[in-house]
Amino acid sequence: MSNDAVTVSAVNTLCEARHVYKDFVMPKKRLLRVLEDISLSVNPNEVVALLGPSGCGKSTLLRIMAGLVPPTSGEVLYHGKSVTGTNPGTAIVFQSFALFPWMTVVRNVEVALEAAKVPKEELPERTANAVRLVGLSGFEEAYPRELSGGMKQRVGIARALAVNPEILFMDEPFSQVDSLTAETLRADVIDIWAAKSNNLSSILMVSHDVTEVVYMADRIAVLTASPGRIRSIVPNELPRPRDYRSGAFMAMVERLHDVIAGHELPDAAVPVGNGQPLGTEVVPDVSPNEIIGLLEYLQDHAAGQDIFQIATATQREFGRLIAIVRAAEILDFGDTPGRLVVLTPTGREFVESDQENRKRLWRRQLVELRLYRRVTDLLMANRENGVDAEEIMDMIATMMPQEDTEQVFASFINWARFGNLYAYDERTRKVTLQ
Distance between terminal CA atoms of the chain? Predict the structure, then answer.
């Protein structure tokens, strides 16, 4: 790339992540890679959304670009200059409101201005403007306990806007409120952004809600998990204001559904049976009861059902449902042709069985997985003493170096206990054959 191209890029970009990697240090100094080779820009006058399943590193990337968390490698630029420490010109709205319960609305906003070292004489006017902007006039002296969830998040938004940011970072800001309140808040945030009555130029938001990002975003970065990578950046050219019920809006939602389903639920078949161990499959952080709940739901839908319809019907966050569906696939209880989720013959046999036969089938499917096959062979050779948990975790770390070893081990044991395959003594940390 020429120097001229770099200069133009810097001028046209507010904030940019370049080849960002993030590793977290786990017990025994194991490294867990959360983000891998992420490059993403936020340009003037746009809303960018990070969309993907739970655990794909969306919030970590947001925090890295805000300067709250340093990348392991790569860099973040703001107006073409490398960021060290907190990113100037940005403010963040958190998922959990993050309000001080002993402070009034006004004081919760003022404290952000004080931290930004705003002159004391400017505090009243800037606080009043921010409170008015988010529609909280008349509630200045209210405490968080006196506010609804939506009003609490309005305080969080006011606090962020009060520092006059050029980019507003939002980490799943509407996930803690009901759907009607979320819809109102989305519209209000877009109105504030579009009004250009302050310094706010752009928004970078994290979401797991496809409808939300279609309503709000101009570009949507779709991440994949383990580790998080950007698979697609989908432009959204729907004119504003956007109508949730319009054909074009629903077509865009469907397009994103296809993008996500194609990445997270590939149609390639998983080899099973014939006495051969499967490839090393990560044991998802999903409980047996969640898998059984999915299978019992599918039992009532013989032809299968669209995964997004399942998410709506079961009120499951989409990223969570993806993990449950993957778990069912790993055990050969479910399959995903396109966006459909269907029972396999083994899954139908399982769901129609009594409890004893369910455990037998579960156990049979477990020992087809390479990790369970290896651990079972190890336990057969150590019947009297069992095997230390640390030895199995070392095996997991070797076979799945990118995964959270502790989490995989916990799920591994949970699945084994359900099938009466292994016993685990948490006091001695010994695993034995059941």
Answer: 61
Decide if 139 contacts 145 (C-beta within 8 A).
Answer: no
What's the CA gap between 390 and 424, in Å, rounded? 12
> Looking up tokens 């969570």, which residue turns up?
320
Question: What's this model's pTM, rounded to 2 decimal places?
Answer: 0.73
Name the residue with tokens 């990560």.
Answer: 282
Q: Which residues contact 242 (CB under 8 A, 6 or more apart)?
A: 214, 215, 249
Is-contact 77 10, C-beta < 8 A?
A: yes
CB 23 within 8 A of CB 72: yes
Structure tokens belonging to residue 267? 């149609």
Phi, psi dihedral angles at 430 (to 5 degrees):
-110, 135
Residues of the chain with pLDDT > 70, as a percent, come to 92
Task: Please tell me the distance from the alpha carbon of residue 418 to that of residue 382, in angstroms, as a whole number.
Answer: 22
For range 279-305, the mean pLDDT: 85
Dihedrals φ, ψ of 53, to 5°? Answer: -70, 160
Neighbour-count burial of 120, counting CB atoms closer than 10 A to its CB (0-12 exposed, 13-18 middle, 19+ buried): exposed
